[in-house]
Design goal:
The protein is of the alpha+beta class. 32% of the residues lie in helices and 31% in strands. A 7-stranded antiparallel sheet has the order 1-6-7-2-5-4-3.
């Protein structure tokens, strides 16, 4: 079997705090319904999803509180920077995500926005369970120990 070619995509926005604040479960790739000025702004590399989340409303999943700033050259055809954006998923995936949020108290967390190899804007979302303060401390301890261990191994070898 031939080896798969490595996927090349341009990451526009990365939610680095998500893995610290949430225990990440299942990860999904989703499309986003965007206007033209939003796509241009994303291509310029301007977007933040650090404080955003996804919500199930009316049988659809919506990305709430993500910030894609206005594209200056669009003038009057511009978009609202923090408008809710529809995520494009299969019905089965929507039902699974909505069920997990309803029954298990999980959150749908956006991890990153990127352009795939076909040039389409995609968002990687995941089911996450919020970490408690002691879990976050444990994560910090583990991370600093890994860093220290790597430093010691380099000195030794």
């Amino acid at each position: 079997m031939a080896a798969k070619p490595e996927r090349r995509f341009k990451v526009v926005a990365d939610n680095r705090k998500a893995r610290f604040n949430y225990e990440i479960g299942e990860v999904y790739e989703s499309g986003i319904a965007l206007t033209g000025s939003e796509v241009k702004s994303l291509r310029a590399g301007k977007a933040t999803i650090a404080e955003s989340y996804a919500d199930a409303r009316g049988g659809e999943i919506w990305l709430i509180n993500s910030n894609i700033p206005e594209y200056l050259q669009a003038a009057r055809f511009n978009h609202l920077p923090k408008r809710p954006r529809k995520l494009l998923l299969h019905a089965r995936q929507i039902n699974k995500l909505a069920g997990a949020v309803e029954r298990e108290g999980m959150t749908i967390v956006p991890l990153k926005i990127y352009f795939n190899d076909k040039g389409r804007a995609k968002i990687e979302i995941a089911l996450g369970r919020g970490k408690k303060l002691h879990d976050k401390r444990e994560t910090l301890k583990k991370r600093s120990w890994e860093r220290e261990r790597g430093r010691l191994m380099r000195e030794k070898g």
